[in-house]
Design brief:
Structural class of chain B: alpha/beta
Largest interface: A-B, 38 and 32 residues
Number of helices of chain A: 2
CATH topology of chain B: Rossmann fold
Largest sheet of chain B: 7 strands, parallel
CATH class of chain B: Alpha Beta
Oligomer: heterodimer
Distance between the termini of chain A: 36 Å
Low-confidence stretches of chain B: none
CATH architecture of chain A: 2-Layer Sandwich
Distance between the termini of chain B: 61 Å
Strand content of chain B: 15-25%
Largest sheet of chain A: 3 strands, mixed
Shape of chain A: elongated
Order of helices and strands of chain A: HEHEEEEE
Number of domains of chain B: 1
Order of helices and strands of chain B: EHEHEHEHEEHHEHEH
Number of domains of chain A: 1
Number of strands of chain A: 6
Bound molecules: guanosine-5'-triphosphate, magnesium ion, zinc ion
Mean pLDDT of chain B: 96
Strand order of the largest sheet of chain A: 2-1-6
């Protein structure tokens, strides 16, 4: 259920962009999905195959780029992947802060067929 | 002959949701309504906390939008207490989004400035991902859920502006580890205050209400 409405949104955005460019078909959609975006690529793919039927996006290949979440240490000015049950910076041991790396959820590009 | 063309898009999938959320927030702001998105697991104590806050601020006008997958149990409870409430049933969807909230916000007659609580679907995951028109997110977490929740559901804790730890009367029965809980939150969110409350006695809500008064 969870990925259904966002998949509809993906198809809507891709279809609009394709039509703006006078395309007749969307062949490829490049999606960027952060680890902490809350969305799962496989699940989006499943809904995509169902919802895109009969639309300009039917049959398009969905390519999903996953991004690992990173924390930032304000003292050492580095970003790092955290260890389980810990938020500590690997350099100084202080707790860092979450960043937007790993929360991405956007369409990067599409490939379309134009007559 | 057809050609393949690549088009750069770089469009956030939340963009339309966020635009509608902003519209709702701005239109409510115009009539002096401050919006609080109340998030937390099923049974964490969201409705009980809303009721306690409303009782502690008799000078204020309150409105509530109740989100549940099914039923109007919470709305009936609020209406029986004289609180102006409407029910959203999502029929399966696991979170509220901006379009549905915008539609239901129009169904409440908010004739006086005040506070609108939007009780999100009981779920510690996806409600944190969607803006619905709120000024602040209030996270309700109960001791009975266990002190490891910040580690398992980080986004809800990261996005919260204020955190209520409910059912503090049950701490001793559920081996709640305060330090572990607070350490987890500090790694995710350095600004949200954590208030310990008991919705059965009303303990701790005085401080919550003071914080709301200061931050609205
Ligand atoms: N002992 C104790 N029980 C509480 C407290 N707060 C809530 N409860 C009880 O916990 C149960 C769930 O409380 P609700 O306020 O309905 O929780 P909710 O988060 O609104 O639940 P849903 O809307 O179903 O997700 C009820 O039986 C409450 O009486 C508390 O501080 N202490
Ligand atoms: Mg409730
Ligand atoms: Zn460091």
């Amino acid at each position: 259920m969870h990925e259904y409405p966002v998949t509809e949104q993906i198809i809507k955005i891709a279809s609009e962009k394709a039509k703006e460019n006078n395309a007749i078909k969307v062949c490829h959609i490049a999606l960027v999905v952060g680890e902490h975006s809350g969305f799962i690529g496989e699940s989006i793919q499943m809904y995509f195959d169902i919802i895109s039927r009969g639309t300009i996006c039917e049959g398009a290949i969905l390519e999903i780029e996953n991004i690992k979440a990173k924390w930032k240490c304000p003292l050492c000015d580095i970003t790092y992947m955290r260890q389980p049950y810990s938020f500590a910076c690997p350099k100084c041991g202080q707790d860092g802060l979450p960043t937007n790396i790993g929360k991405e959820f956007y369409i990067k590009s599409i490939e379309v067929e134009v007559p | 002959m057809t050609n393949i063309e690549k088009i750069d898009v770089v469009q956030d999938i939340y963009e339309e949701n966020d635009r509608i959320a902003l519209e709702t927030k701005e239109s409510l702001e115009k009539v002096g309504v401050f919006v609080i998105n109340v998030m937390g697991s099923p049974g964490a104590g969201k409705t009980s906390s809303i009721i306690n806050i409303i009782r502690s601020m008799p000078e204020e006008s309150f409105y509530v939008i109740e989100g549940d997958i099914e039923s109007d149990i919470d709305t009936i409870k609020l209406k029986e207490l004289g609180i102006n409430a409407v029910q959203i049933n999502t029929n399966g969807a696991c979170h509220l989004d901006a379009p549905i909230v915008q539609k239901y916000a129009k169904k409440i007659d908010m004739d006086k400035p005040g506070i609108l609580f939007i009780e999100n679907i009981g779920n510690l995951v996806c409600p944190a991902e969607f803006r619905i028109g709120e000024h602040i997110k209030m996270l309700i977490c109960s001791t009975a859920e266990g002190s490891d929740k910040p580690y398992k559901y980080p986004l809800a804790f990261e996005k919260a502006n204020i955190i209520l730890l409910t059912k503090c009367d049950l701490k001793e029965f559920v081996d709640f580890d305060d330090d572990f809980f607070r350490k987890g939150i500090k790694g995710l969110n350095k600004t949200a205050p954590i208030f310990e409350v008991n919705a059965k006695t009303g303990e701790g809500f005085k401080e919550v209400v003071e914080w709301i008064r200061k931050n609205r």
